[in-house]
Design a protein that fits this description.
The structure holds 2 protein chains of 2 kinds. By secondary structure, chain A is an all-alpha fold. Chain A has one domain. Helices cover 87% and strands 0% of the residues of chain A. Chain A has 5 helices and no strands. Chain B is an all-alpha fold. In chain B, 74% of the residues lie in helices and 0% in strands. The longest helix of chain B has 46 residues. The chains are: A mainly alpha, B mainly alpha. At the A-B interface, helix 5 of A face helix 5 and helix 7 of B.
Amino acid sequence: MSEHKELFTKNQDRLMSIAGWANNLAWVVMIMYLILAALTIFIDQSNYQRMQALAYSQIGVDYWEMARLDPIYYVLDIGSDILSRVLTGLIYYVVLRGISLGLYMVIETDMNYRENSEKEGV
Amino acid sequence: MKAELRGQIYSNLNSKDTEELVEIWKTNDRVEWSGLAFDVLEEILKERLSSLPEQDEHILEKQDDEELEEWQAKILDSDTQPELYDTLEVIDTLDSINKVAKAAIVIYAFVGLVSSYGFEALVWGAVSLNNMEELMPILWNLFQTFLSVAIQIAVTYFSLKALMHILRILMEMELNSRK
């Protein structure tokens, strides 16, 4: 590894830094979306109250009454919101992890070729 | 170009042990090895052995899982391992990408249906199926939902699959760059 570090070029250093950021960002984004998914009911409730306040909705019932009026639809609606947020978080997570690993592989390949060239004396 | 490729395959296969070459010859895996590779292999084995060993039936296609396992084994069995990344981590990530791509199809279809007022109206019987004036906007809404969900699924699924293949190719390139 120490031999490799000496071989790092400026571009490789930049790629290493981006790969590290992508890896850390993957976890941050994933946790953020999981928190958003856990807070779905509260977000939905506050959106409903905002709509009521702006008089977009003519229904004079509060959020929980509305949920009790049509429980199956309410569960489906909230369930789909939760699933959608979890899925978005997972997609960002795997894409960022993939980018990070891909960049590490590119650097490793580049370094292997450099080492081989040096050994062959090209 | 073909001669150049043949030369590359020849030098690549010629560097392997006879035992390993016989194993490749016997397994007769036409998915992993091309026809040209088998021609070159035959030539090398004729040079090294008095007679060619018998081959198994052609393997012409494989299940995705089997292919992945073989590919994983090839990379994991390598004598030298990379220093900047963990091979097992890449294999796990590829598996996760595959699972997320499949889950995206189901979840996007479910979310699309639930958020469509056309579906809601049909399921809750808010429209009469005999009344075309009521039914047409619902069908139009369902068609729009279907289109948007299909596009969303296609974009997500193919992007994730592309990422998987790019990672696999990068890993193989990295493996081939080791000496």
